[in-house]
TrEMBL record:
Signal peptide annotation: none
Species assigned in the record: Bicosoecida sp. CB-2014
ANK repeat ranges, renumbered to this chain: 156-188, 227-259, 296-331
Protein name: Uncharacterized protein
Transmembrane portions of the chain: 75-95
Pfam families: Ank, Ank_2
Entry keywords, A to Z: ANK repeat, Membrane, Repeat, Transmembrane, Transmembrane helix
Record region (Disordered): 14-65
Amino acid sequence: DVWRRCNAMELRQRKDAGAADGGADANNGVKTSGAAARSGTVGVVDGGGGGDGAAAQVDTKRRRRQRRRQACDDWGVREWGILLVLIALAVWGALEYAAATYPFVAWVMGRPEPVEDETPNTEGATLWVAASLGNVTALQAAAAAGGDVEWRHPEHGTTPLMAACVFDRLHSAKALYAAGANARARDEGSQEWSVLQLATHNAARNCVTWLLEETEAINDLNARDKLGCTPLHNAAFRNEVVVGRILVEHGADLHTRDLNGGLALHWAAYAGSDAAMEWLLDETEAAQDIGARNKRGRTPMHIAASGTTEGHLRTVQALLARGADARATDKRKNTVLHDAAAYSSRENVEWLLTHSPARHDIQATNKFGESPADRADEEKNEATANVLRTFASLGLAVHEAVAAGDAARVRELGEIDAPLRWRDDAGVTPLERAADAGDESVIRALEAAMAREDE
C-alpha cells in the first residue's frame, strides 16, 4: 500500500514536471509530446541547445528520485507506526484470550483469579485452599469473614486442617487449630482417615510431630481406618523411617494388626519399603515378628517375594539377612517360591533360585498339587515360568552327570547354582542315585557342592 501511494505520487509529480518543462522547450531544444505529458515522461529533441537539454534531463531525473525517496520515507514512517500499533494490539488480544482460557498464562502475567462474587465466602472453600497453599494471611482473613473451619471438600471430605497437614503447612495448621478446628476429625473417603493418618501417609513430618505433641490427635496414635491400619502401618507402607520413628517415640504399637492380620512389617513388605523394613527389624521390637503370619498364613517374606520391583528384592534380602524363613508355607501350602513365581519378576525369581534356600522348593507342591512353575503358568507369568524351566533343565543335567559318573560335570553344575537336590520323575535325588551306584567321586562332588550351596 505504501509503494502504491508512492507510485501514484510519482505519476502526479511527473505530470507536473512535464508541464513545467514543456514551457521551456523553445529555449532549451526540449520538446514534450502530448502523450509524453500525460504519462509523465519527457522526450528530448536535440536542437540548438542539445547539450543544455541533456543536462536538464539529468537534473530532472535527479529531482524526481529525490522527491520519490522523500515521499516514500515520509509514508514509511507513518505506515510502520500504524503497523506496529496493529501488531501490539493483536499480541495483547491474544494474551488476553490465553489468560482467560489458561490459568497458567494468567499466573505468568500476574493476573489474580477472577472473583465472581465479592461477598465473603462463609462456607470454607477459601479456607481449604488457603490452608493447602500455606497462605496464613488469606486463611485468617477467610476465618474472620465467617469461613467454616470444618468445611468439607466435596470430593473426599477433607477439612481445611487436613489439607494443611497433607501438605505439611504447619503454620496454617496451627492457625486453624487456634480457630477451633477439630484435630481428631476423619475424612469422608473410602478409608475414613484421621488427621494424623493423612499427615503420616503424606510424610508431613512437622505436622505429625505437632499433632502428637500439641493436640488431642495423640489419642489417634493407634487408631485404625476401615482396613484396620494405624498411622504406623501407613509410615511403613510409605517407607517413611523418620515419621515411623516419631510415631514409635510417642508410643505407637508395633504389634497392632490390620483386619487381615497384617503388621507394619507386612505393609513394608507389600510396598517394597526396604528402608522401613531394615529400621523395623534393627531398631524396634518388630524384629520378633519377622515370621509373623497374617490370616492367610503369609509371612512378610511371602509378601515381599511377590513384588516386582528392586525395592521388593532389597526387602527380601533384608529379611533373609535377619533370619527370615525362605521356605515358609502359607495355609494353602504355597511356599515363598510359589508366590514369587506367580507374581514377581524374572530378576527376583532368579535371585531367589541362586541366592536363597527357596531354590530347594522348585518342585514343592501346594495343597492343590501345583508347583511354582504351575503357579507361574496359572497367572500367565511367562518371564518367571521361563526361568523355572531353565532351572529345571539344569536339575535334569545334574541327574545326567550322575548317571554318567561325571564328577567334573557335577562340580561345574554346582558352580552355576544348578539345583543339586532336583528329584526326577521317580522322586530320586542325584545324591541318592550316586549312592545307589556306589560312585564315591560323584558322591564327594555332590556333597561338596551342596555344602557350598548351604553356606
